[in-house]
Specification:
single chain; Rossmann fold; Alpha-Beta Plaits; 4-stranded parallel beta sheet; binds pyridoxal-5'-phosphate; Thr_deHydtase_catblc; lyase; Ser/Thr_Dehydratase
């Protein structure tokens, strides 16, 4: 392990001539992210970053949330999705750009990103007059790609995932003499992300825990150093999606390990291997790591929209997902800060998230009922739904593959209910009227910690 210092200053462009290109690009010679010599970012670097970026970054609000009563905790939301490009990534990006020397600024930089780091370097590069190239994988959300183009950056769409995009970016950095800036592991990026921790501690007193969405680990690393230095009693909780659990893989392995990732609502966290500097910096400061299920992320996005009037992307909603799933129950009655790290979500994906969230919440249900095919059979079924105020969204009749008598029809109904209890009422009513019916994925009550009515009770703390 090597302590990193701000003037250690090796640059990708300095050694580009001496490096042989390979079929599969070897990134172990990135001078800032060397697995053999991981660096631990220090508190002093974070305070230095805070000073340098202060004129270009918003000090976003960290406010008590309406969700407090719903969760039984005093929840504070650090709203970093309110940064200009919609994510905290601007902090590290601006700091890394400001730390380039004159030659590097002229040559320009290159980065690989699923979107938020790309948008951040494109925007701040544009503001600071530094040429920026970004390589985004094919799976990057369209809205994020579009935004990068608006900031006049050179946008290359290549690679099936982040791993491939990174390799392309690194290869180009050497060919074109550009400085490669890793979005979660470059020490300047980690230091920049840590500034969010400094702000949180100035904004909220007596914090018990800070919950940090975790992908490559840069945010977690920076925030843990800042928070633990100022108050070692505060617990640091990392959260990642079950579909890209690379930090938990690193924990069980004892060091970062490649983890295949699957499509996730938390696309910002889809990094297959935790950064080595991020790991070295955070591994002894982290108190707990939570892996959340996709449906809870969808539910958290829904809760933010309905209760906070905030559009938060999947990655940013993971902290609340963990709480809704009961994975942080030890903090009931305590003061917990959730970092809402980003708000960039494609509108089409948002629509799908909300539907999944409603399904996870027991408010959108699908059932199959076999009814009489005689005149009035289907209309009677519809009346039953209407009699208890359930609204039918979609209805399909199936005759050809019904196994029972020819005078029966199977009706598939998708409907909206008020809440889980209302769905149970519907199920009981159908049970009393029909012999053959079933629900698809009827929600399990234990996953639903509270219903909306609880929101109208008094806050926990005055
Ligand atoms: C919105 C959002 N939250 C959290 C993260 C995780 O940050 P890190 O990769 O530094 O762990 C990212 C990463 O891109 C992100 O975009």
């Amino acid at each position: 392990m090597m302590e990193y210092s701000l003037d250690s200053g090796a640059s990708v462009s300095d050694n580009s001539d001496s490096i042989e290109m390979q079929e599969t690009e070897d990134m172990s010679d990135d001078p800032f992210c060397n697995p053999e010599k991981p660096v631990r970012v220090t508190f002093e670097e974070i305070t230095s970053a805070a000073y340098k970026i202060r004129s270009g970054i918003k000090n976003t609000p960290c406010e008590k949330s309406h969700i407090s009563q719903l969760t039984g905790m005093n929840i504070y939301l650090k709203k970093d999705f309110l940064q200009h490009t919609g994510s905290f990534k601007e902090r590290g990006a601006r700091y890394a750009l400001l730390m380039l020397n004159e030659q590097e600024r002229r040559n320009g930089i290159i980065a690989a990103s699923l979107g938020n780091h790309a948008q951040a370097v494109c925007y701040h590069g544009y503001k600071l007059g530094i040429p920026v190239t970004v390589v985004m994988p094919l799976i990057a959300p369209i809205m994020k790609i579009q935004k990068c183009r608006e900031y006049k950056a050179n946008v290359i769409i290549e690679g099936k995932d982040m791993d491939e995009a990174k390799k392309t970016a690194y290869k180009l950095s050497k060919e074109k003499n550009l400085t490669y800036i890793n979005g979660y592991d470059h020490p300047h990026i980690i230091a920049g992300q840590g500034t969010i921790g400094l702000e949180i501690l100035e904004q909220v007193s007596d914090i018990d825990a800070v919950v940090v969405p975790t992908g490559g680990g840069g945010l977690l690393a920076g925030v843990s150093v800042a928070v633990k230095m100022l108050n070692p009693q505060i617990k640091i909780i990392g959260v990642e999606s079950e579909r890209c659990a690379s930090y938990s893989k690193a924990m069980s392995n004892g060091s970062p390990l490649f983890t295949p990732i699957e499509g996730t609502l938390a696309d910002g966290l889809a990094v297959p291997e935790v950064g080595y500097n991020a790991w070295e910096t955070s591994k002894n400061l982290l108190d707990k790591l939570v892996v959340v299920k996709e449906e809870m992320i969808a539910l958290a996005i829904l809760r933010f929209i309905e209760n906070e009037k905030c559009v938060v992307e999947g990655a940013g909603a993971c902290g609340l997902a963990a709480i809704l799933a009961g994975q942080l129950d030890e903090f009931k009655g305590k003061r917990v800060v959730l970092i809402l790290s980003g708000g960039n979500i494609d509108t089409t994906i948002l629509g799908r998230c909300l539907e999944r969230g409603l399904a996870a919440d027991g408010r959108l249900v699908k059932c199959r009922v076999t009814v009489s095919d005689r005149p009035g059979g289907i209309s009677e079924l519809c009346k039953i739904f209407g009699s208890i105020g359930v609204s039918i969204k979609d209805i399909i009749h199936e005759r050809a593959w019904v196994a029972s008598d020819v005078f029966s029809v199977e009706v598939i109904v998708v409907c909206e209910t008020r809440d889980y209890t209302h769905s149970v009422e519907l199920r009981n009513l159908l049970r009393s009227k029909y012999k053959k019916f079933e629900f698809e994925n009827f929600p399990i009550e234990s996953t639903l910690v509270a219903t909306n009515k609880d929101l109208f009770s008094d806050d926990l703390d005055p």
